[in-house]
Specification:
heterodimer, A: 82 residues, mainly alpha, rod-shaped, B: 281 residues, Four Helix Bundle (Hemerythrin (Met), subunit A), elongated, disordered C terminus
Chain lengths: 82, 281
């Protein structure tokens, strides 16, 4: 063949591959920021670290609402974050 | 994919995986058939192998902008108005821009040995380049700060304006003198198809494979948009909760309030006015 054909396939499919991987990485990062399971599957194990992690700000909202924080009584004052 | 689908969903993920796998298998088969099985063309020689990629990419470009156009219409139509349509339009346009860029690049790689130039101001090439710029502009419009509904409305209008160029691109080879060849399959003027046998099947496979790839990319991009909307809402909630916490009790000295990093990130959200009173810390 000639270099043009190979270049066309590498550029075309390579770009699509990079874009696909970047989408997956961005989606994973967004899920992590929101405290959602990194794998959006109904079969994800409930004890998965990502699935178990509370959403960010839950503690803050609970504190604002005067509720307990992480199972510990709020009466002791602001708790150190785990 | 349902435009109303959220960012999660187990069944949706399983379908997506199958879709992605089918697309990948289709692309691998296209590469194998296109590079090693099909014969060289009588006139173009081995350069014809690039045409198992370039027209399929251009086809996906049309589909992507078509879906963005329809989604924008559905958003603007009062009876079907939903932010999901706006997300779908944005997602499809971004994927469309990637495919438009690739249409231009792969076309240029084919044009250099065929026409002797990397670029020429041919009507088809020029209108396609304009399409690329128009949808880049559309993506920029989506980033302009404002209230979520207002942003969606202005984006939908921008999508309708940008779409005007799509039929111009398609018919430019018929309306004006063009270096670019008219459609090889089902030429609208002659009604003939100029590709046969293994070449035709490989061309058809490339169209199917890249359409599947597009669907997979669109679904993931849509999910990302849904997560971004969720995050934006989360940032607003956190800002309000933070203010309430400040009013109700001062955090321990040196303690970083939970979620402060996300609130900080919310400062970058293009709607600072919606963060609640006194948000500017």
């Amino acid at each position: 063949m000639n270099g043009y054909v190979e270049a066309g396939y590498i550029v075309g499919l390579g770009t699509l591959g990079i874009y696909a991987v970047s989408l997956l990485a961005r989606e994973r990062a967004a899920r992590r920021r929101l405290g959602l399971s990194p794998v959006p599957s109904s079969r994800a194990r409930p004890d998965h670290a990502g699935a178990r992690r509370p959403r960010r700000g839950v503690e803050l909202r609970e504190r604002a609402a005067g509720e307990t924080v992480g199972g510990r009584p709020e009466a002791d004052g602001p708790q150190e974050q785990a | 994919m349902s435009p109303g689908a959220g960012p999660g969903g187990g069944r949706g993920t399983a379908v997506l995986r199958v879709l992605g796998l089918l697309g990948l298998v289709g692309v691998v088969a296209t590469v194998w058939l296109g590079l090693w099985v099909t014969p060289p063309d009588r006139f173009m020689g081995n350069l014809v192998r690039l045409l198992y990629l370039h027209p399929a990419i251009a086809w996906v470009m049309y589909i992507a902008y078509g879906i963005a156009f329809l989604s924008s219409l559905l958003y603007l139509w009062p009876r079907t108005r939903a932010l999901a349509w706006d997300r779908l339009a944005g997602a499809s346009s971004e994927v469309g821009v990637v495919f438009t860029g690739l249409t231009l690049v792969t076309g240029s790689i084919w044009g250099r040995p065929t026409w002797g130039v990397w670029w020429t101001w041919d009507p088809l090439l020029t209108t396609t380049a304009l399409l690329f710029v128009l949808y880049l502009g559309y993506l920029a419009v989506r980033q302009i700060p404002g209230e979520r509904e207002a942003r969606a409305r202005r984006s939908a209008i921008a999508a309708l304006v940008a779409f005007v160029d799509v039929p111009i691109v398609y018919f430019s080879v018929l309306w004006w003198r063009s270096l670019h060849q008219p459609p090889t399959v089902d030429d609208p003027v002659t009604g003939k198809t100029y590709v046969h046998g293994s070449m035709a099947w490989t061309l058809l496979l490339s169209f199917v494979a890249l359409t599947l790839v597009y669907a997979w990319l669109l679904a993931h991009r849509y999910r990302l948009a849904a997560l971004a909307d969720l995050e934006e809402g989360e940032g607003l909630e956190l800002a309000i909760a933070e203010r309430r916490a400040e009013a109700g009790g001062v955090p321990a000295r040196g303690e970083e309030p939970a979620g402060a990093d996300l609130v900080g990130a919310a400062a970058g959200v293009p709607d600072p006015g919606a963060r609640g009173p006194g948000a500017g810390r």
